[in-house]
Amino acid sequence: MVNKASGHAVEVRGLRVRRGSTDVFRGLDFDIPRGQITGLMGPSGSGKTTLMRSIVGVQKVAGGTVTVLGSPAGTTAQRRRVAYDTQAASVYGDLTIEQNLRYFAQVIGAPRSDVGRVIEKVGLEGQAKQTVDSLSGGQESRVSLAVAMLGTPELIVLDEPTVGLDPVLRAELWDMFRGISETGATIIVSSHVMDEALRCDRLILLRAGRIIADTTPQGLIADTGETDPDAAFLALIERDAAGAAEHRPSTRREARDEPGE
Ligand SMILES: Nc1ncnc2c1ncn2[C@@H]1O[C@H](COP(=O)(O)OP(=O)(O)O)[C@@H](O)[C@H]1O
Ligand SMILES: [Mg+2]
User: Fold this and answer.
1) What is the pLDDT along the chain (261 residues), one digit of tens a residue?
2) Secondary structure class of 31 (helix, strand, coil)
3) Which residue has the least CA distance to atom 24 on ligand 1?
4) Ligand (nearest to CA of 46)
5) Measured in angstroms, how far is the CA atom of residue 152 from the centroid of ligand 1?
6) What 3-state DSSP class applies to 19?
7) Residue 46 and residue 236: Cα distance in Å, rounded?
8) Which ligand is in closest contact with the Cα of 60?
9) What structural domains and CATH numbers belong to the chain?
10) Which residues, judged by CB distance below 6 Å to any ligand atom, belong to the binding site of ligand 1?
11) SS3 category, 142
């Protein structure tokens, strides 16, 4: 059992990121607690992938700090403590599950004994000698998850792992995330499917590169009065668009969409 206490897994202060000619983030601040599942929710283009890339240290940042497990994002020491499953499939279709895992175990320096352990953890013992190309979509997602679990990382970052899966397979994957979290690992998982928000311990809702809510599933429902997560998210978007300043008397109304803000 990994110690769940002591500090945040991720601390972001004043994060600014520019991609191409777009200012994706103009100063983000948030913390992600250890040992929990934090959902990074938001529509396509809201900045989920860019934020995950910043956390794992593969994103060029224009300003601010990202501290992961106590040190700056992307340091060498973190490579074995942090796992990142990108949105694009990262396993080799023409290799078997076992061959893929042996390969990735070697790359990250995980013990060979880990291969059997992670295959069992995602319930693919029966398919271990099958090529990834011969698997169903749900099974392939579980192979990616198995890769992410090699070496027992403290922080697992999963970018839209359930995309394209039917509801039954999505539920199965979420049960696995929960199981991994219960061993003490911190999980950050992105999704644009709002009903998955209810599976998380904490939620960060992104819209157009801004955090419009940093909350919990209970907080989201209590705050909006909506039990349907889609409706709750829409309510937050509407409130955000209306501008909080309008609801505070004697507060100067600030420009919201001006560049350089
Ligand atoms: N390689 C890139 N070059 C320029 N702009 C990009 C690039 N990747 C993403 N963006 C822009 O950054 C913003 C956030 O994108 P992204 O982080 O991929 O969002 P999400 O993962 O939520 O769909 C979008 O406006 C997108 O157009
Ligand atoms: Mg994305």
Assistant:
1) 444 445 899 999 999 999 999 999 999 999 999 999 999 999 999 999 999 999 999 999 999 999 999 999 999 888 889 999 887 768 999 999 999 999 999 988 899 999 999 999 899 999 999 999 999 888 998 999 999 999 999 999 999 998 888 888 889 889 999 999 999 999 999 998 888 999 999 999 999 999 999 999 999 999 999 999 899 999 998 998 887 556 555 444 444 444 433
2) strand
3) 45
4) 1
5) 30
6) strand
7) 14
8) 1
9) 8-216 (3.40.50.300)
10) 19-20, 22, 24, 42, 44-50
11) helix
